[in-house]
TrEMBL record:
Residues 5-58 form the Rhamnogalacturonase A/B/Epimerase-like pectate lyase domain. Signal peptide: none annotated. It comes from the Bacteria. GO terms for molecular function: polygalacturonase activity. Belongs to the glycosyl hydrolase 28 family. This is Rhamnogalacturonase A/B/Epimerase-like pectate lyase domain-containing protein.
Length: 470
């Protein structure tokens, strides 16, 4: 059955709150056993929160626009009054469940949002400019655009999602999730506007999507707020194009639970602050992850964003003195081409080494691209670390950078505290006139069981060895 929201009283004039009419259509559709609720083309629907129900496909015809209401007080507040360690949290969706959502569902199986219309989060109703480089909210929470919890056999296809004031598409505790051919078009200066954030979800396929946003494009999470669910497991990401002022493809940092069995293939990353990042700061473990056939182009953005233009970075460090980080193991990279201002960077911890890493046909070309300082490695968030190596120091806030950023001439590959690593048919090339912030082609520190086969690359400048293995 097809249900047109105009038949339930929607004005579609871009001014009237159409949420009651859209909700009535959804409720009627679900009660009848399911079907399609249609937002017609050429019309603008202005609405506060909407709740999807079992069996409903919310379908936006081409040329239709569903815009989020500007008044936060009109939104559904499903997690009001959460308690954590005796302290009331009002809207901290990075660690707990989102406090507000524009489109929301819970325990609703066989739901869908389909396109090719547009869902607009009305971001600038909730944020303000705080620097030349980004905007952020006066307050938390800002509403998540789409949050679905404990919903199985669900699909998000073809639709455009844009102008999210916070995370865009957040399935939590879900199984059998298909995200296909969607576009996420967020401004590149709206902080926390993640694209797709599967959280404690399993059997997830993210296929053929284009994402541009000011935070992580696709970020796998196992958040503390959804620990009643299992690991984030069995994830396929393929044929996506990604642009981010943070990390394009990321696992963490919300990693209280585990991540297992992830395949990423045939993606292009461009204009990003980081390419691929596995960033573990909590107790969750990461194992069995494969990246292949990926082109990565990174440049450094302002220091308010985590990262210093690393095309590939893996790190595990304690978030704080009370929160021990998890273990990372069995990570594979194959046929990766990088054009970047920094090198590949792995950073484990003594006693918690990154383990069993295999890199084949990973090519890194490093050159200066921006006005920002180079020769830096970003370990935020977490306990501050001292520098490593004779040329390395920790850069303090007084020097214009945050503590937790290490300064040293950047090698093409810099591996620290890794146990069991193979580099096969990898290559480093330094280009351009300014080599002052670049160092060796390969540098390892406190690494064991290192195998280097057919590695090609010369140091950036005199005074540096081509390879330093330690």
């Amino acid at each position: 059955m097809i249900y047109h929201v105009q038949n339930f009283g929607a004005k579609a004039d871009g001014v009237t709150n159409d949420a009651p009419a859209i909700q009535a259509a959804i409720d009627t559709c679900s009660a009848a056993g399911g079907g399609r609720v249609v937002l017609e083309s050429g019309k603008t629907y202005y609405a506060s929160s909407i709740v999807l129900k079992t069996g409903v496909d919310l379908h936006l015809e081409r040329g239709s626009l569903l815009r989020a209401h500007a008044d936060i007080d009109t939104y559904i507040h499903p997690n009001e009054g959460q308690q954590d360690d005796g302290v009331e949290h009002i809207g901290t969706p990075v660690t707990l469940k989102p406090s507000y959502a524009f489109i929301y569902a819970k325990d609703a199986d066989n739901i869908a949002i389909s396109g090719p219309g547009t869902i607009d989060g009305n971001a600038y109703a909730f944020v303000k400019r705080v620097s030349p480089y980004y905007v952020t909210g006066d307050f938390y929470p800002r509403p998540t655009l789409v949050y679905v919890e404990h919903c199985n056999h669900i699909s998000f296809t073809d639709v455009v999602m844009q102008n999210a004031p916070f995370w865009t598409l957040h399935p939590a505790g879900c199984d059998d999730v298909l995200i296909s051919q969607i576009r996420i078009l967020n401004d590149l200066d709206v902080a926390n506007s993640d694209g797709i954030d599967p959280d404690h979800s399993t059997n997830v396929r993210i296929l053929g999507c284009h994402v541009t946003c000011a935070d992580d494009c696709i970020c796998l999470k196992s958040s503390a707020g959804n620990m009643e669910y299992g690991p984030t497991k069995n994830v396929i990401i393929s044929n996506c194009t990604l642009i981010s002022t943070s990390a394009a493809l990321k696992i963490g940092t919300e990693g209280t639970g585990n991540f297992e069995n992830v395949i990423v293939d045939n993606c292009i990353i461009s204009g990003s602050n980081r390419g691929i990042s596995i960033q573990i700061r909590d107790g969750g473990n990461v194992k069995n992850v494969s990246f292949s056939n990926i082109i990565i182009e990174t440049r450094r953005f302002a220091d308010c964003w985590w990262g210093c233009a690393e095309p590939i970075t893996i790190s595990t460090h304690d978030r704080d003195q009370h929160t021990k980080s998890g273990h990372i193991s069995n990570i594979r990279f194959s046929n990766i081409t990088c054009d970047s201002e920094n090198g590949v960077f792995f950073s484990g911890s003594v006693g918690n080494e990154i383990e069993d890493v295999w890199m084949e046909k990973v090519q890194v070309t490093m050159r200066a691209k921006t006005k920002w300082q180079r020769g830096l490695y970003d370990l935020r968030p977490g306990l501050n670390r001292g520098g490593s190596g004779s040329d390395s120091t920790t850069v303090s806030a007084a020097e214009g950078l945050c503590a937790g950023i290490e300064k040293m001439p950047s090698p093409g590959f810099f591996l620290r505290d890794v146990k069991g690593v193979t580099l096969r048919d990898c290559r480093v090339r330094f280009e351009g006139d300014d080599m002052s912030d670049f160092g060796e082609a390969l540098r390892t520190e406190r690494c064991t069981e290192v195998s280097v086969e057919n590695f090609r690359g010369k140091a950036a400048r005199p005074g540096f060895a081509d390879q330093v293995i330690g």
